[in-house]
Structures are given as structure tokens and as C-alpha cells.
Design brief:
This protein is mainly alpha-helical. The protein has 2 domains: 142 residues, no CATH class; 55 residues, no CATH class. The chain contains 10 helices and 7 strands. The protein has a 3-stranded mixed β-sheet with strand order 5-6-7. Strands 1-2 form a two-stranded antiparallel sheet. The chain has a two-stranded antiparallel sheet with strand order 3-4. Helix 2 runs antiparallel to helix 4, helix 4 runs antiparallel to helix 5 and helix 5 runs antiparallel to helix 6. The chain is globular, with a radius of gyration of 23 Å. The N terminus is likely disordered.
Length: 253
């Protein structure tokens, strides 16, 4: 009898101990902490231009943020929060890819190899596995959400790309943030030319034509503000479309 009581006593103690141990180490989290990323963006990004030299000196902070992302279970996030998570992950891992080769490169393309595009490298530690930037952008963000505004949120570290947004994307503010980056790009005179009846636009609208319903002019009109809106409306007949050369040079110093 005393032996049985002793066993019960041990089991009770073990149960109490487990209550204080907390979650099992290594278990994925469903909460995203973007504070480190916000700090790095505030300190090293101005109007989409990245101070890679300064960021390089704080690379350990970026590494810590990437470690935090690796500990998040994306499937445990709400839909908009998951969209924001993958967008931040894409941009943060792009920064890491550049820093791994910086200085000494003039383009993100310099980080690849003859037989492997930089976007095909499986570098992003997410959800217990490794993903490439292409997989994040095309297989997850584009395929699952079908929101063309994503093209103005992800950043490819190039001058031709929509600027790197200066704050983390969040589920709470996602629609506002996506609208902001889209309108900023569409209405930036450096990103288009309207000459006569021809609208010269980024090649993003050619590469991902299906995402814009093969109608870049319609997309421009949706997000155009003055004076662009009036200029588009003043074109007689259909607006023709031409595509600008894409600048792959590094989006920073």
C-alpha cells in the first residue's frame, strides 16, 4: 500500500513540474514579432533606398529576426497575418541574400550562379523547411492570394523593383499598406511615361500580365491620382502600352 502511495506521490510531482515547464522547446509559434525588422527598416531604408553598409554592420539583428521567423508556424496565423508574414519574410531574406555577398556586387543577379538563379536558392527557413524566394512569391503569395498588389510589396533589391517598404507589413494594416505601396508606385513619374497615347510601364505588367487581367491601363486607372488620372482620361481612344527597360542595379549603397 505504501508503495502505491509513493508512486502516486511521484506522479503528482511530475505533473506539477510539467505545468511549470511551459511549451515544449522548439515548438513553432503562431505570433509574429516584427520589432527587430521595424528597427532595421527605420535605420537603414530611406525612400526605398537601402544603406547596405549600415545594415551589414547590424547583420546580427537581421539574423535574429530571421531566426524568429523560422520559429513561426504560418499555418497558425490568420489569413491576412499570413500574407504579411510571407511578404516580410521575402523582403527580409532578400536583404540577407544581398548581405551574404556584400560588398562587391552591383546587382542581386550577382548572387546567383550560372546554373542557379538567386530566386531559386532554398534559403528561407520557414515552417520547419527551406523555401526559395520564387516559392514564397509565386507558389504562396501569388497562387494563394491572387492579389496583384503583392507585386508592389515584395522587393527584389533592384532599382527597377517597387521600393522596399519602410515598415513591416501586418495583418491589421495589410489593406492600407498594400494600397499605399501600389498607389505610390503607380503615381511615381519615375515609374511610367505617358507620351501621346502610349503609356510606358514597368515590365512587371508584362511578366505578370495575368495578375493584372492583361489590362495594365485599367489597373493604372484604378490607382491613378491627379495629375495622372486626368492625363489618362484625356487620351483619345484606347491607351497603348509599352514596357520600360528594367533596372537590375542594386537599390542601395
Amino acid at each position: 500500500m505504501r508503495h502505491a502511495v509513493y508512486i502516486l506521490f511521484l506522479l503528482a510531482g511530475l505533473t506539477t513540474s510539467l505545468l511549470f515547464i511551459g511549451p515544449v522547446s522548439g515548438r513553432a509559434q503562431s505570433v509574429v514579432d516584427n520589432d527587430l525588422y521595424a528597427q532595421l527598416l527605420t535605420q537603414h531604408v530611406r525612400d526605398g533606398v537601402v544603406d547596405y553598409g549600415g545594415l551589414k554592420r547590424q547583420e546580427t539583428l537581421l539574423d535574429r529576426y530571421l531566426d524568429q521567423l523560422a520559429g513561426v508556424d504560418p499555418d497558425g496565423l490568420a489569413d491576412k497575418e499570413r500574407f504579411a508574414f510571407y511578404t516580410n519574410a521575402y523582403n527580409a531574406w532578400t536583404l540577407k541574400l544581398i548581405l551574404d555577398h556584400y560588398p562587391g556586387i552591383e546587382s542581386i543577379k550577382d548572387t546567383g550562379r550560372l546554373w542557379q538563379s538567386p530566386w531559386k536558392k532554398k534559403i528561407a527557413r520557414i515552417g520547419g523547411g527551406l523555401l526559395s524566394l520564387d516559392e514564397i512569391e509565386h507558389d504562396i503569395l501569388r497562387a494563394r492570394y491572387r492579389d496583384p498588389r503583392v507585386h508592389f510589396a515584395v522587393n527584389c533589391a533592384s532599382k527597377g523593383c517597387p521600393p522596399l517598404y519602410g515598415e513591416p507589413f501586418t495583418g491589421r494594416d495589410l489593406d492600407r499598406q498594400l494600397d499605399h505601396v501600389t498607389r505610390a508606385f503607380i503615381n511615381d513619374p519615375a515609374r511610367y511615361r505617358l507620351e501621346g497615347g502610349t503609356l510606358h510601364v514597368s515590365r512587371i505588367f508584362k511578366w505578370f500580365a495575368e495578375d493584372f487581367n492583361d489590362d495594365p491601363v485599367g489597373f493604372f486607372k484604378t490607382y491613378a491620382e491627379e495629375p495622372l488620372r486626368s492625363k489618362l482620361d484625356a487620351v483619345p481612344g484606347d491607351v497603348r502600352v509599352s514596357y520600360l527597360d528594367y533596372d537590375w542595379s542594386l537599390n542601395g549603397t
